[in-house]
Write a structure and sequence with these properties.
The protein has two domains: 5-18 and 274-385, Beta Barrel (Lyase, Ornithine Decarboxylase, Chain A, domain 1); 24-273, Alanine racemase (TIM Barrel, Alpha-Beta Barrel), CATH 3.20.20.10. Helices cover 30% and strands 23% of the residues. The protein is built from eleven helices and 16 strands. The chain has helices spanning 5-12, 23-39, 54-62, 72-81, 97-105, 116-129, 167-176, 197-215, 244-254, 269-272, 305-309; strands at 18-22, 42-47, 66-69, 88-90, 110-113, 133-138, 180-186, 222-224, 262-267, 276-287, 292-296, 315-317, 328-333, 342-349, 357-360, 381-385. The structure holds pyridoxal-5'-phosphate. Residues 47, 49-50, 68, 70, 91, 188, 191, 226-229, 266-270, 365 line the site of pyridoxal-5'-phosphate. Pyridoxal-5'-phosphate (PLP) is lined by residues 47, 49-50, 68, 70, 91, 188, 191, 226-229, 266-270, 365.
Length: 386
């Protein structure tokens, strides 16, 4: 798409930097995910934290997805966009009293609870506001997601979930709490997982813990296996839509369940990453002693992933490629006063000049949502392709 001169000319009229959202691709991606899930009677809650842009949320809501939230404001946002309360879940290790009360008042489907103390607090607050709270217990399955250590969440040393050694006590606390009803078990092992064997290992753990509870007479209605399905950052054009069939198939095959038990997923990145591109203009080119630099008008304030966890994003020059032009290696950097403000090193690109447009691909997830106004930067702009 970014080889197209019409798009280039459209974008040249816009003030940059901007987030370009391909709503057609988003719709195709959502349809593929929904179709693969429906076929197996699986339910998907979209993880809002990946991208809470209104246009994107509205499209996702209109397709019948639920919402997976990690703050009271995300719960409120989901309600405002039109997600039905019975399709909203609320996770996170540090829910404040105020956030819990917001969620209770909206009668959301369930809290994903991460500690015994949190169970007790939800029970107490539910009593105060006269509500009953559905909870799913987040279990740390100790499965290595084989992804970046900052986005690995399901190991014993991570802060997430109730440790296995405390589950006996958690089950007893749930039984003694009047205002709490256990609906399910919740797991989430990490993000950007591309090795489907990780999910196979997760299924084994889910089966074990489900059996553990059922042996103790506690019926588990919902198995929530979290999100984490990865996308192809290297080849966004070749693989614009993740293989949802293969992903759901793993759970269909390996998760033990009865026809009454529901399987819930919380996908974020897999649904929205590929539809987003950060579009930026070259402000300056500079040849250092050893390097060529492209200095862009976008920086870590618009897309933090490279600075935060050395994430790779494909970088392209926008517009028609001229055959036979010798490419150059550039360090592509932003204007922010931090050395980590760099989108890519030694990136091979056709020769670039001031005013050229650059696309930083696969930026639809954990991009715009992490934008900041550090250096008192402008608010981010948008361009919707529909
Ligand atoms: C972040 C998060 C997700 C979504 O993860 P993706 O990798 O974007 O699919 C799902 N569940 C929980 C609990 C999360 O924290």
């Amino acid at each position: 798409m970014f080889k197209n001169d019409i798009i280039k000319n459209n974008l040249l009229q816009q003030e940059t930097p901007l987030y370009f959202y391909d709503l057609r691709l988003l719709e195709k991606t959502l349809d593929a995910a929904k179709k693969a899930a429906d076929k197996r009677n699986f339910h998907i809650h979209y993880a809002l934290k990946a991208n809470f842009n209104d246009r994107i949320l509205s499209l996702i809501q209109s397709k019948g997805f639920g919402a997976d939230c990690v703050s009271g404001n995300e719960v409120q946002k989901s309600i405002d966009i039109g997600f039905p309360a019975e399709k909203i879940t609320f996770a996170g290790v540090g829910k404040s009293d105020k956030e819990i009360i917001t969620a209770l008042k909206h009668k959301i489907f369930a809290f994903n609870v991460e500690s015994i103390q949190e169970l007790e607090v939800i029970n107490e607050l539910a009593g105060q506001v006269g509500e009953k709270a559905n909870v799913s217990l987040r279990i740390n399955p100790n499965v290595d997601a084989h992804t970046h250590h900052y986005i690995t969440t399901g190991l014993d040393e991570n802060k997430f979930g109730v440790p296995n050694s405390e589950l006996e006590k958690a089950a007893a606390v749930i039984n003694s709490c009047e205002n709490i009803h256990l609906v399910g078990l919740h797991f989430h092992v990490g993000s950007q997982i591309t090795d489907l064997n990780v999910f196979k290992s997760l299924c084994v753990k889910v089966n074990e813990w489900k059996n553990w509870f059922e042996e103790r007479g506690t019926y588990i209605k919902v198995l929530n296996v979290g999100g984490g399905l990865g996308v192809d950052y290297k080849y966004p054009d070749e693989n614009p839509i993740p293989d949802f069939e293969a992903y759901f198939d793993i759970f269909d095959k390996f998760l033990e369940r009865t026809s009454q038990q529901e399987v819930h997923f919380e996908l974020g990145r897999a649904l929205v990453a590929q539809c987003g591109t950060l579009v930026s203009k070259v402000l300056y080119t500079k040849s250092g002693v050893k390097k060529n630099f492209l200095i862009l008008d976008a920086g870590m304030t618009e897309l933090m992933r490279p600075a935060l966890y050395q994430a790779y994003h494909k970088i392209e020059k926008i517009g028609e490629e001229i055959a036979g032009v010798q490419k150059l290696n550039y360090d592509v950097v932003g204007p922010i006063c931090e050395s980590s403000d760099c989108f890519g090193k030694e990136v091979e690109l056709p020769p670039c000049k001031r005013g050229d447009l650059i696309a930083i691909r696969t930026a639809g997830a954990y991009g715009e949502v992490m934008a900041s106004n550090y250096n008192l930067r402008n608010e981010i702009r948008h361009y919707y392709y529909e």
